[in-house]
Amino acid sequence: MSVTELRTEERAEGQAEDRPEAQPRRQTAPDRLAVKRRRVGRLERRWWGRRLVSLFIVWHLFAMAIWLLPSSSTGGGYTPLVGLFAPVVRPYMMGTAFAQSWNMFAPNPDKTDVYLEARITYADGEKRAWFFPRMVHMGYVRRYQEERWRKMVEVATHGNAATVGPALARYAARVNSADAQNPPVSVEMIQHTRTVPPPGQPMPPYAESPLLPGASAVTAIRPEDLR
Questions:
Q1: pLDDT-based confidence at 114, cuts 50/70/90?
Q2: Which of 107, 146, 158, 225 is the most buried (most CB within 10 A)?
Q3: Structural domain spans, the chain
Q4: 208 pairs with which residues across the strands?
């Protein structure tokens, strides 16, 4: 090897050493989407993948059909098909939040107007009333943000008071416990209800009653419930 060739080779090696190492390219959103599409494509190309997707679609349509049959939620009795399969599809419908009811539609929509009040008793004997959020007192934006409260009140007052009521009482105690020296010691949940009349008739006054019946009407509040 001549001196010129040797110097040329040394110069090339030096330039290679000075060149920074290539950094791995950061994956972008289109790259991640392309990867997902390739994975889905591989699933669709496999026979078991196609059958799995088809079985899921058939199951979902079957569950929706059983759940949405009018007799399954209007109180008119169960058809043999619904009575047989409703317990089977219930966990799927409830767990995926696909469950819905026909009681908001004619001919017998729900006519109950209800809101909840928590009557809180403090350690010094003081009593205060606190009301759960009501949609009628909110603007459209806040209604969307607080929609969970409307649904919670609906659940609590439609046959689930024993399950939901004590938890609501403890929540009311927590949000109204500002003085550590005078904490809430008990909460009584009160429901205010009225039946909405047909159009053109005056609205009746609200009637109040304990949300929880009998001895369980008042929920005792323990120190750990306020944490």
A1: very high
A2: 225
A3: 29-95, 112-226
A4: 192
